[in-house]
Amino acid sequence: MAGTETHRFKQWQLSTTLGIDGLNLVENASIPQFGDEEVLVEMHAASLNFLDLFVAKGGQPGMLEQQPNPGLVTGCDGSGIIKAVGTAVKNFAPGDRVVTHLIGRIPGDAKIDFNSLRSSLGMGTNGTLTQYGTFHHSNLVHAPRSLSFEQAATLPCSGLTAYNALLGLGGRQIQKDQWVLVQGTGGVSVAALQIAVAVGAHVVATTSSAKKVVKLEELGVKHVLNYRDTPEWGVPARAFTPGKVGFDHVVDIGGDATLRESVKAVKTDGVVSTIGLLGGPSDQQVPMMAVFHNACIVRGLVAGTRQQMRDFVAFVDEKRMKPALDDMVFGIEDARKAYWRQERQQHFSKVVIKLHS
């Protein structure tokens, strides 16, 4: 791309101050020189995750704590068009539409664990909240042909996590007419319900918002349970399944605060995928005898491999799945407002930021 060294654009960076208010909009960023294995992408959309809030606040005591990293471009999910490639890049070309993958410079089938997030986009490597970004080619995969930039930008973190939860465990992939339980209306949960519906499974959801019930039902949810009204929802949710035997898959996003109920809801030999900490700290303990009683699998996972991301892209195109977006879409100048909406859990599914008009 001729003249990239003088091209000016906008991006959001971390500053010396932790927190959402510490995010810094740079309005005259310049494109750096990129190496032989790197790719220059004109970014068109980004979406937010709990991970982005986690990074902005400097982590959490005892878990991925980090010092301020001023100048690092924030954001881990995004989509755009390749503008230029390094001389050693063989799998991409200018004009290709791409989406990001959290972790680069590792084999395509390498599993991601929590500590490896230290090198993820927006945490250890420049991220996606930028109008132009330079990425190692292994941080990218080709985007679905059937999606807009805004829809595609929802896939890399929460979408991939949901895909891994339901289709990533060999021999335990979700099947038609099985039963799935999802919690809440955030990015992972809504992606999981859309994946399950696309396969032909039946979905039950929990929520605390009466306003979101209609949206869940429009996406194909069979039953909705209000977890504020029914704090011990595991057994009542189980009652929705045929014969009250429980769920084949439970996607648990609350961690310590919800895992006890998730284990109550899962069927014998079913799978509980625990993928989040949104419930915060809790004095609730999961009795191991409950896991033993159900003879179930409790599986922790973080996002997914790059090969799973490619498989997910193919799945989205094959099933013509259209990821649900939040009602509010933000421009790049208003990214801080998008973060606040995410933190206050005012959103439905995914908060998206358009990076180009």
UniProtKB/TrEMBL annotation:
Residues in Enoyl reductase (ER) domain copies: 19-353
SMART domains: PKS_ER
Pfam family, one: ADH_N
GO molecular function: oxidoreductase activity
InterPro entries hit by this protein: ADH-like_C (IPR013149), ADH-like_N (IPR013154), ER (IPR020843), GroES-like_sf (IPR011032), NAD(P)-bd_dom_sf (IPR036291), Zinc_ADH-like (IPR052711)
UniProt name for this protein: Enoyl reductase (ER) domain-containing protein
Species per Swiss-Prot/TrEMBL record: Friedmanniomyces endolithicus
Taxonomic lineage from the root: Eukaryota, Fungi, Dikarya, Ascomycota, Pezizomycotina
